[in-house]
Amino acid sequence: xxxxxxxxxxxxxxxxxxxxxxxxxxxxxxxxxxxxxxxxxxxxxxxxxxxxxxxxxxxxxxxxxxxxxxxxxxxxxxxxxxxxxxxxxxxxxxxxxxxxxxxxxxxxxxxxxxxxxxxxxxxxxxxxxxxxxxxxxxxxxxxxxxxxxxxxxxxxxxxxxxxxxxxxxxxxxxxxxxxxxxxxxxxxxxxxxxxxxxxxxxxxxxxxxxxxxxxxxxxxxxxxxxxxxxxxxxxxxxxxxxxxxxxxxxxxxxxxxxxxxxxxxxxxxxxxxxxxxxxxxxxxxxxxxxxxxxxxxxxxxxxxxxxxxxxxxxxxxxxxxxxxxxxxxxxxxxxxxxxxxxxxxxxxxxxxxxxxxxxxxxxxxxxxxxxxxxxxxxxxxxxxxxxxxxxxxxxxxxxxxxxxxxxxxxxxxxxxxxxxxxxxxxxxxxxxxxxxxxxxxxxxxxxxxxxxxxxxxxxxxxxxxxxxxxxxxxxxxxxx
Length: 480
Ligand SMILES: [Zn+2]
Prior knowledge:
Blueprint lengths: L7 E9 L2 E8 L2 E5 L1 E4 L11 H6 L5 E3 L1 H6 L3 H6 L3 H5 L5 E3 L3 H7 L1 E5 L4 E4 L6 E4 L1 H11 L3 E3 L11 H23 L3 H5 L1 E6 L5 H14 L3 E4 L8 H8 L2 H4 L6 E3 L5 H9 L4 E4 L1 H6 L3 E2 L6 E2 L19 H5 L2 H9 L3 H27 L3 H14 L19 H17 L4 H12 L2 H8 L6 H6 L14 H6 L9
Parallel strand pairs: 4-14, 5-6, 6-10, 10-11, 11-12, 12-13, 13-14
Antiparallel strand pairs: 1-2, 2-3, 7-8, 8-9, 15-16
């Protein structure tokens, strides 16, 4: 980009209802919004070369401060020329503040006004993260978009606790702003985002938004969602939260989400997203398609010569069959993870592109309805009689995938049997809360949980299980 490119400039090109489409101009390149950011936790978007990530349509990727500070270390990355050079990605990078992962991943946390003291989950070494240290690490990495250091409480905590946590995060936001502004050259070329907290409470969210606006940031993130509250509660919060934030700045919903989450959040005024879902799913045989997610491990794919998605123009779909991908997954071949990850990122970015175009044409409501129609019923389910339309209320992707596979298998077998009809009826009558409790990833075996679709699976869903997580694949919004 030329020297005329501003440090950070957000232009809204079109609006349709609450949805907006536009561009963020930064020195390392333009970010088209609504934007999806693939997660590159350990300085790599797993199973993908950076040039292939770019080819999927990514304008920006996310790096995890917590993981990079522990390994290989921010100072080392800085000595090697910064994260962009280190990982060979020359476009914008957003780094999170590390706060979320300290809370969800590390052991022996001690939270004070100053910051958080914790032990690394890698080697047990003691570390301290404060607003000042978090900003310093993000500067050493050379992040283009820096996130303020915050605390993300679980939404089921008492109101007073959530209020106190939000107020602490707002004091930390002020300190993050001051630390960023004294960052010399980096402050002249990077941007700083504040993070709204307040869980599901409208008044606390407003108080948080006002505190952040008073401090002033380049963009505003909506934090504290996608932490196990379920889509319905998340959307209910997004009905008011984005509108509380400055209209002229980008709004970033952290850690979201499933394709239908993205469409629903854009409808409510969100401009940016990040999620491990397309990449993590790519390693567990889960593929996203315009007609819903599919589980490649299902035996029905074993002799299917068709592509993952008839409508997809990605390199995987151009050359590889479901049968081959099924085989690679069964055989544990790494090429399987690479090909499905590539398809999933391609799908996510085609979805974002379609969203941007629909908003530009003033046809986003139609697009969203058509998307949901196709995604939740699936073109394999031509009779339209399948209970898969129940899916929007489900919170657990692993169940979703299995149920879609189940329905499609039955469909292909020729009919919905009486047993299936009974099962469908009982699912309908089961009551949402009961289903959620039963299907919740914490109640699933680990392998199943890891295959699940929530961006932040076990990590924030109950700290009392921290011991289990310590031994069994914790995640915390990072793509591990
Ligand atoms: Zn594809």
